[in-house]
Amino acid sequence: MASTTKGDIRNKLRRTHARDMDDLADSIVTLTDTQTISGVNTFSGANTHSDFIATADDKGLQIGTAGISGLAASLQTTGTIAIADDSVQVGKYCTVSADAQTLTLPAVVVGASFIIVNIAADGGALLTISPNANDQFLVDIAGAAGTDNKDIINTKATQLQYDYVHLIGLSAAGWLIHDIRGTWVDQG
Question: 77: alpha, beta or left, given left = phi > 0 and alpha = psi -120 to 50?
Fold first, then answer.
């Protein structure tokens, strides 16, 4: 059996797969030292290639005329939010734009759902979410068992526009923090 060298293999591949290799080489995008794309590039779909500016859409929220998943915004100020006016069940989510706001949740109704979004500019608004005095967040921000009447807080120093919390009434004892974005802390 004759021995085949690397050179022989390379030559045979060039002869049989030259077009495939050319196509592959032509399709590869290369980056320059400044990490910019060079060469001929084709993008499909609705792509915008400019300086990236984070928006609500980029952060997982779909704010705009359609709202979050088709929900309408309900601007909130300090006070108790209501299932009949501000919950996902009635097609709404809550927004807060002013600084130092405290929203109090109603007594837990199993299955009730609230999405609360801090829409203030980055570092612009402290937001406190307070359960009803007899309720709790079943698992707090730190991951421990909750305590009745202890708040969760989106701190002003770390707040970014579109930080949010999605709460669901899981049991008569309290609220489940279903989803959260941003830096939140437990009341001390």
Answer: beta
Contact between 132 and 104 (Cβ < 8 Å): yes
Q: Report pLDDT digits (tens) over 29-77.
A: 555 556 565 566 555 666 554 444 445 444 445 443 335 767 888 898 8
Q: How far is CA 178 from CA 6, 18, 63, 103, 113, in A?
A: 58, 54, 19, 17, 9
Distance in angstroms (rounded) separating the CA atoms of residues 18 and 21: 5
Q: Which domains does the chain have, with CATH numbers?
A: 57-186 (2.60.120)
Q: What are phi and psi of 57, to 5 degrees?
A: -60, -40
Does the pTM surpass 0.85? The reply is no
Q: What's the rounded Cα separation, in Å, for the pair 160 and 47?
A: 25
**Are residues 102 and 128 in contact, defined by beta-carbon separation less than 8 angstroms?**
yes
Are 105 and 79 in contact by the 8 Å Cβ rule? The answer is no
Amino acid at 83: I
The DSSP call for residue 92 is E
